[in-house]
Amino acid sequence: MNMILPASVSATPNGTTRPQVRIVIVGHVDHGKSTLVGRLLHETGSLPEGKLEMLKAVSARRGMPFEWSFLLDALQTERDQGITIDTTQIRFRTRSRDVVLIDAPGHAEFLRNMITGASQADGAVLIIDALEGVRDQTRRHGYLLHLLGIKQVAIVVNKMDRVDFSADRFKEISDEISAHLIGLGVTPSAVIPISARDGDGVAEQTPRIDWYQGPTVVEALDALEPARPPEQLALRLPVQAIYKFDDRRIVAGRIESGHLSAGDEIVIMPAGKIAKIKTVESWPVTPLKGSHGAGRSVGITLDRELFIERGDVIAHAGATPRDTRRIRARIFWLHDKPLSKGDQILIRLGTRETRASVVAIEKAVDPGELSNEETTAIARNHVGEIDISLAQPIAADPYQENSRTGRLVIEVNGRIAGGGLVLSVDAGQRAVPIDIVPVESALRPEEHSARYRHNGAVIWLTGLPGSGKSTLARALERRLFSRGGSPILLDGDTLRAGLNGDLGFSAQDRTENIRRLAEVATHLARNGHIAVVAAVSPSADDRAAARRIADASFREIYVATPAEVCESRDPKGHYAKARAGTLQAFTGIGNDYQPPAQAELRIDTSARTVSDATDEIERMLAETGILFDELVDLAANI
Amino acid sequence: MHLLNPDSAKDRLRGADRKSGATVEQIFTDGRPPPPAMDHLDELEAQSIYILREAFARLKKLALLWSLGKDSNVMIWLARKAFFGRVPFPALHVDTGKKFAEMYAFRDRFGKEWDLDLKVEPCPSIDAVDPTLPPAARSAARKTEGLKWALTKYGFDGLIAGIRRDEEATRAKERVFSPRGLEGGWDVRDQPPEFWDQFNASVPQGAHLRVHPILHWTEADIWAYTKRENIPIIPLYLSKDGKRYRSLGDQDITNPVASTASSIDEILAELDGTKVPERAGRALDHETEDAFERLRVAGYL
Question: Where residue A141 sits, what CATH number does that domain have?
């Protein structure tokens, strides 16, 4: 007999096929969340031995009547305050589910904890006090369930004993909250009248609610499905890191949607570079065969060496995410200081992190209020829609198309301050305007390389002023020229005299200076020349940008001469002026130089001769495929 | 887009190795078999690997706390999976000097076999520890002090620890990336939000982060995974003379529980029916209502 199991079934450790669902219970403070949790644990026979007795004893010792909620309020601080501070996780079983119960605080002050808890849930129970009815925090939590993307929501109307189990009162609340949620696109799976304290409606129907025909809370939980990573959507593999622990170059990440196999043609976004998956690596068995689906943490190797970095997204050709510098998002805000137009923020989307600024704010409201009064800034615990301009292009999807790559968090001062859904990505920013038609070179790359016996490259010498960059660059220029090559020296200071004459030394101008150098150098490299760039380029971010522009032709050389030696050389007299205070914004004194972590080569010129160092650069260029001697091999390709 | 160098000289020189005439496979063929479904342990493993890789990418100087117990052994296994065989940061054993002989034997053997960069750090004497703590808690707090010493000595900005939410109520409140104060303290009231697997990894100068890659696992998960992956364990976990250790700490403050489970399968069967908490054999958890929380606020695991 063929048995068809639903896709969501997963084997649990004890060999049963009971799916695990994670549930969050949310709602206004004091509407009875903790009581419901305590009751659920008791009704499902899940309490640890002696726990109930111990808590009853503690209550008696403190002269308080026993409360079910004490079960969760395990921390001393919480017992004193009488409110749940943080999310806790508790497990129990229903007939066909292993339930992980995440309790989330109702107190407005702890919204960040509610979000932390609720974001991990497959489904939610929104609890409402029958006497008090729908309150601001009820509405706010309802709104956040929508923003967090939680689709399965059951409503529980608690404390029915306080309203004499009135069917009319129940209907009134049920209508109000259903209208609110449906307006947000969330349809409740059930609305259940209960008394958590007495047990009515929790695990069984009682005569006091005989007018109610729907499921009990336990039955509603039993019907929840675990949320699964979207395997049926297009492949999205955000890159976590590139590992070179051995001779393999492994691109590591978790498949957020879709699936992949060795041999797939892929596109690396946002740069749009194309490659093929060579192998899917693993441990202890490697390589892996077959297809690997959403949710798996994988490592892949590619069929060619190209520049790829953390934050890139791997997709299949023809189904890529968009690359953009502009995003519109609907967000919730948790930071004390309201988010305003013009604010500088840090965006995390997938594994990409980028600086950004808030261009516009719209529809900023308190989701707890009935009347939506709009403001120009998004206050703490409020929501709104924002336009963000990003410092570098990123790959993203609108959340309607892919919820995993269509959501972002915002960081302020190194701390997560908000998050939300990507409503739209403006893909027009980097599109080539139609009136620009780049003219291709008449020569093929092979023709250049056959003549020069090298491929085009950008040799980027970075280091403190006086470290010997220009000396090395000139020696390298001479060496390459002598062997018939076509080196072109691009000295940072020389270019500042002309092309970059409009730029100063602010961080922004330095960035632009580097960008122009990198663009010019890359153009030369693309036409077969070796551009030798000598520039202090103190910012690691700027150099990373240069590497992105020049891509696989980039070779970074860190001229790592000790600072004291550089200062003692002082070929341009800059150190002396800076010490005397007559030269501002000088890199060298102070700590504003960020040394490269992964340069192709590191040279300390205080420890070796110029000719020695040039030899080493030449060797590196030969080893990394820029210089070559075997004309025979080359001829075959012409 | 800069496709400058799709066939560099190096690639061309290697051209002979490439399969010639290989056809480009169409990727969205409907006939392709779907990827195999992930089971519960696969999901846990994938999430833990993701967390370990995030920690390695975002922190500068990491260490993994290896207590030699079942949880941290699973954690080392997961790190080897995450980094394709070798753990790329030190395994730190903060040694109270009072562990079981079997534990030291285990450490010495597998530290080598797993090719770990093992760092063993001793703990200070009991006199250096808060005398107002109850005896067992005070003894355990030595470990906190030892940890602080190690932090100062090596300057780690991230410590990977194998705690789990289901172990103990205060651990249930932990974040995956949990910032610690300058003194190593944990401010339970002011934890940053953490959602969608986006972690707070910024560490103030001199402070450190705890990273908890198996926070979402249960005791049963640990055993089921240990069995599936065939991860070595210390034999003290298996029943001998009607008793076994469910949790291993210092010899003088850890007691075995009554059990006949002499294999991992039997342990799993036992756990399925039990309502006795895992740390029942840990004396320090039962001294006063808040002893464990006080320890954790001060920086205990």
Answer: 3.40.50.300
Say if residue A302 is in the same domain as residue A340.
no
Per residue in A226-243, pLDDT tens?
A: 888 888 999 999 999 999
A634 and B2 within 8 Å at the Cβ level: the answer is no
User: What are A17-71's pLDDT values in tens digits?
Assistant: 578 888 888 888 888 887 888 888 888 877 766 767 877 787 788 787 777 766 6
Chain A contact set for B9 (CB, 8 A): 449, 454-455, 625-628, 634
- Contact: A297, B82; criterion CB under 8 Å: yes
DSSP string across A279-292: EEE-SSS-SBPS-E
Task: Let me know whether A188 and A266 are in one domain.
Answer: no
Determine contact: A281 vs chain B, CB below 8 A. Answer: yes
Taking the C-alpha atoms of residue A119 and residue B193, their distance in angstroms, rounded to an integer, is 10
Q: Which residues fall within 8 angstroms of residue B232, CB to CB, at 6 or more apart?
A: B73, B106, B110
Q: Give the end-to-end CA distance of chain B in Å, rounded to a whole number.
A: 48
Structure tokens at B109: 């053997």
Q: B189 CA to chain A: closest CA distance, Å?
A: 7
What domain count does chain A have?
4
Structure letter (DSSP) for residue B55: H
More confident residue, B205 or B202: B202
Provide CB contacts within 8 A for A250, sequence distance 6+: A242, A243, A244, A281, A299, A300, A301, B84
Angle at which helices A167-183 and A136-148 cross, to 10°: 40
Q: How far apart are alpha carbons A226 and A123 in whole angstroms?
A: 8
Give how many domains chain B has, as a whole number: 2
Structural contact between residues A391 and A355, judged by C-beta atoms closer than 8 angstroms? yes
Contact criterion met (CB < 8 Å) for B38 and A120: no
The C-alpha of B250 sits at a distance from chain A's nearest C-alpha, in angstroms, of 25
- Asked if residue B74 belongs to a domain, the reply is yes
Q: Which of A552, A534, A561 is nearest to A626 (CA)?
A: A552
Please name every residue paired with A123 in a beta bridge, in sequence order, or none if there are none: A23, A152
- E strand or H helix that includes residue A313: strand A313-316
Cβ–Cβ contact A588 with B under 8 A: no
Q: Which residue has the tokens 């954790």?
A: B296
Residue A50 lies in a domain: yes
Q: Which amino acid is at A246?
A: D
Give whole-number Cα distances, A223 to A153, A204, A385, A477, A487, in Å. Answer: 11, 15, 34, 72, 70
- Shortest alpha-carbon distance between residue A175 and chain B (Å): 31
- Residue A231 in any domain: the answer is no
- Whole-number Å distance between alpha carbons of A350 and A314: 12
